[in-house]
Amino acid sequence: MEAFPLELCVNGTMHRLEVEHRKTLADTIRENCGLTGTHVGCEHGVCGACTVLVDGAPVRSCLMFAHQAAGAEIRTVESLAGADTLHILQTAFIEHHALQCGFCTPGFLMLVVGAFERDPDIAGEELIELLSSNLCRCTGYQNIIKAVRSVATDLAAR
Amino acid sequence: MKPAPFRLHRPASVEEAVTLLSDVAEEGGLILAGGQSLVPMMALRVVYPPDLVDINAIKGLDRVVADGGRLTIGATARHAFFHRPVTTNRLGELLAAVSRYIAHYPIRLRGTFCGSLAHADPASEWCLVAATLGCGIVLAGKGGRRRTLPARDYLRGAMTTAREADEMLIEAHCPLLPEGATFGFYEFNRRAGDFALGMCLTTFAVVDGVMTGVRVGLGGIENSPRRLAAVEALLEGRAPSAAVFRQAAAAADDGLDPMEDPATGADYRRGLAPVVIRRALQFASDKAAAKV
């Protein structure tokens, strides 16, 4: 199948690629850009493991084709930590034991970071509803909720 | 779980999109809007269109404007755009309440109002809104061809509409609610974000203690949402009360043709119908009484 040229801006770096039209943004980020922090779980939009930010919006990258993201700013989990410091949400996940196997974690982190950038006042039931977007089969969600609540004020202020 | 190969087209205008569509529709080419239903179906190889006409790059197609007694909703207006009321008319509040039941937050940031109408899933909240409020659906074809269909003529069944393969749904017109109108929405599903097993939307005004302009729409139960004339007739001109709601909701059973699926039998949905109707009516009535 024919691949077409594509310029993809991921975490501030422009990647010049040759990609098939049918290739999803998730697979392109992993295989063509070499950024394997974005995980691919269900491949049909149910699990949320592949959540990345496209122009600030947390979206399922398995439900977008890479060519649709031409000209957009994409941010993945690799953009969160600094050289020596974790993002406050990553630290909160560790402190509250909000992950066990960790497969879903990149998706949850990008979901929450993106959602708070758009809607800083997310709280209460709305926060629970937000966290129900993604699947985690280890934690039972309680520790994820605790971790996010512990930094909600700081996230809103960023 | 990878879509079959296809050609992706990214037109910059509606005319370009419908011209492209007319070239590829016969072979099974489709419009791609938010892609939150179409792309999973492609991943599962339920559909494998040889061409996709992606309308996301068309500027201005996401506009939502209240004017002339109606809300015009452009083809790429996302579900999440309705999270906060888009108009001070009560319709804004209605759409905000309903939008929260659609899938999950990231899906709502990509999926579109008009895409839901084009897909016409029986469990689509926006199809229920269109059927209940009497939305107009605007279809565009090549060469400036346009036609507007009322929702009741447009919706033809599960994933079936009056849209021709070479037509693009370019906007929906949603009538503003009359002065003093209240609304109630109730949806039942097993988990947050799941497809509705049953849902009801109702609007009416309470004038001199009695209900007027009553609309009751039922979704998720039959293969297409529709207004329930028999239920509406039992409510019109009556004072709202739990007893009246119960009596009216029972009338939904006559002529009801519930869907069944491996997890949920037709009898279950039949039993659910009066429950969601009663709860939506009570919600609307409480809202009217509280004057909020």
Description:
The complex is a heterodimer of chains A (158) and B (292). Chain A has 158 residues and is an alpha+beta fold. Chain A folds into 2 domains: 3-78, Ubiquitin-like (UB roll) (Roll); 88-157, DNA polymerase, domain 1. Chain A has helices at 25-32, 88-95, 105-118, 124-131, 142-157; strands spanning 3-10, 13-20, 51-54, 57-60, 73-75. A 5-stranded mixed β-sheet of chain A has the order 2-1-5-3-4, with helices on both faces. In chain A, β3 and β4 (57-60) form a beta hairpin. Chain B has 292 residues and is α+β, with helices and mostly antiparallel strands. Chain B folds into 3 domains: 7-54, Uridine Diphospho-n-acetylenolpyruvylglucosamine Reductase, domain 2; 64-175, Uridine Diphospho-n-acetylenolpyruvylglucosamine Reductase, domain 3, CATH 3.30.465.10; 181-287, Enolase-like, domain 1 (2-Layer Sandwich). Chain B has 10 helices and 14 strands. Chain B has helices at residues 14-24, 38-43, 90-99, 105-110, 113-119, 125-133, 151-154, 229-235, 242-250, 266-290; strands at residues 7-9, 30-32, 51-54, 64-67, 70-74, 136-140, 146-150, 155-157, 160-161, 168-175, 181-188, 198-207, 210-219, 226-227. The interface between A and B is medium-sized, with 31 and 29 residues.
Q: Classify the secondary structure makeup of chain B into a structural class.
A: alpha+beta
Radius of gyration of chain B: 19 Å
Note the total helix count of chain A.
5
Number of separate structural domains of chain A = 2
Helix/strand structural class of chain A? alpha+beta
Characteristic key phrases:
heterodimer, A: 158 residues, 2 domains, 5-stranded mixed β-sheet, 5 helices, 17% strand, B: 292 residues, Uridine Diphospho-n-acetylenolpyruvylglucosamine Reductase, domain 2, Uridine Diphospho-n-acetylenolpyruvylglucosamine Reductase, domain 3, Enolase-like, domain 1, 3 domains, 14 strands
What would you say about this model in short?
The complex is a heterodimer of chains A (158) and B (292). Chain A is of the alpha+beta class and 158 residues long.
